Amino acid sequence: MKKIVLKVNIHCQKCKRDVLKAVTKLTGINQVTVDGEKGTLTVVGDVDPVLLTETVRKSGKVAEIMSVGPPKPPEPKSPVKKPLPPWCYDCQLVPVSYVPYDSGPCSIL
């Protein structure tokens, strides 16, 4: 697995669509991210960086390799624990009654 970042001239949605269409035809790609503001294409997977650059260039865009390296492992998200309220309307006392066989009724609150 490698994380490849390419610098690509992306100016509009059509440019973005053309780059994505060209890149997704390659095999071995796990994740593709396009950042139009920064002009970067990030690909994570088992793909050759030179082949990836050539494919983007064939789509009519200027591309150059910025970095190639191992992807960062995802950071485990710690669940945000919300404090529970002290009580709710579902947890009110419910009267329970018990009637033994040989004596009168008994009521427990």
Automatic annotation (TrEMBL):
<feature type="domain" description="HMA">
    <location>
        <begin position="1"/>
        <end position="64"/>
    </location>
</feature>
<keyword id="KW-0479">Metal-binding</keyword>
<protein>
    <recommendedName>
        <fullName>HMA domain-containing protein</fullName>
    </recommendedName>
</protein>
<keyword id="KW-0636">Prenylation</keyword>
<dbReference type="Pfam" id="PF00403">
    <property type="entry name" value="HMA"/>
</dbReference>
<dbReference type="GO" id="GO:0046872">
    <property type="term" value="F:metal ion binding"/>
</dbReference>
<dbReference type="InterPro" id="IPR006121">
    <property type="entry name" value="HMA_dom"/>
</dbReference>
<comment type="similarity">
    <text>Belongs to the HIPP family.</text>
</comment>
<dbReference type="InterPro" id="IPR036163">
    <property type="entry name" value="HMA_dom_sf"/>
</dbReference>
<keyword id="KW-0488">Methylation</keyword>
<dbReference type="InterPro" id="IPR051863">
    <property type="entry name" value="HIPP"/>
</dbReference>
<keyword id="KW-0449">Lipoprotein</keyword>
